[in-house]
Amino acid sequence: MKTIHIIATAFTLFAAASFAHGSITESENRFTGTTLITAYFQEDDICEKNPCTSFGYTHNEKTAFLSIYYHKINAGERYLKCHDVNWLADGERIKTPDANLVSSDKMKYGRVSEAIKQSHVEKATIEKIANAKKAEFQICLDEFELTPDEQAELREFLKRVEKAETERAKTNARARPL
Question: 35, 60 in Cβ contact below 8 A?
Answer without folding.
Answer: yes
